[in-house]
# Entry
Amino acid sequence: MDVLVEGNRLPSIAGIFHEREIPYTVAVADVNAIIEYQQASLAKAFCKSSCIMDWTKYHRLETINKLLEDLVVLFPDRCSIHGIGSSAEGREMIVLRISNGKTSNDGVWIDGAIHPREWISPAVVAYIADCLARTFDKQPEYITNKDWYFLPILNPDGYEYTHTSDRMWRKNRAHYGQCVGVDLNRNFSCGWGENGEEGSSSDPGNCFYRGPEPFSEPETKAVRRAIMEANTTFKVFLSLHSYGEVIIFPWGYTEDPCSDYVELLEGGTAMAKAINKTSGRIYKVGSTKDLMYYAAGTSIDWSYGVANIPYSYMVELRDKKNRFLLPAEEILETSLEIFNGVLNLMKFVDKRNKGTQAGSKSKAALVVTSSPV
Ligand SMILES: [Zn+2]
# Structure
């Protein structure tokens, strides 16, 4: 558990832990100093230009969306942008689609910033979209036979709020009485509200508030509509978060393993291997509950359990030391390792599809029926 403590109260809090023999470490000695440093470099970047994208700093919503528009201008044969809905405060949610237009393609969904304080996630989604758009015609078939959907900023209101008001904001900006915000990654329908206050919260003032009902929020509704109404069959759903350096898959609402547990473990391992080869980092692989905690109503439990997207993963990016405040100097390296991880997952998925034609679920059925026991 992370506890944020006012600087002058640190000695007394440390004393309380010490007295009760609760082990602790001071992870970040001065959170404000890091926030101020990052804001200063952001302000400098904005003075020079408000619309030039690079990978040396964290960018605002406008700049990231401008990148998506620029890619359509540069590569109109493969790129298109789609407004999939509006946020609680009326900001447009924009998806970039990259595709060669073949009807036999499988769909791949990648989103970021469902939790806005996790700034590295939209940066990595934007990087992968940019890289793929620029190199698409040189990529192998297991990349080009996919329809790619990128939503770098799933929670635009929250993301802007982390830039203007509260760097540590986690929820969207919908109003519920005196309180603000729903944790969008607890607002999806699969297992919504399970495990009581451990899996999510019914309290609008809590940072894990699940909302009054599943899909109560315009942002989660927009994602559901975009996936269910797309004329693509999605095979892969990736939601990028930070921090933890883990690749996790369903379930989060229960400790039971999902029916494709072993298959998802292997797909996640394909990603983790490529990451390790790129940067030496080790991302652990496992189910949400096993590696993290109960999380009920997550987007990946829904994408796997309801939308039937077999390879559904949450990737918790870097890092364990700086937590949500990953230095901008690490954007590029993190993006590269995840890009390679995603490419290798596609290779794995295609290999599996060729073996079974219909994917992991029918393969499991085949094994059962052919068993002589
Ligand atoms: Zn998150």
About this structure: The radius of gyration is 21 Å. The chain is about 40% helix and 15% strand.
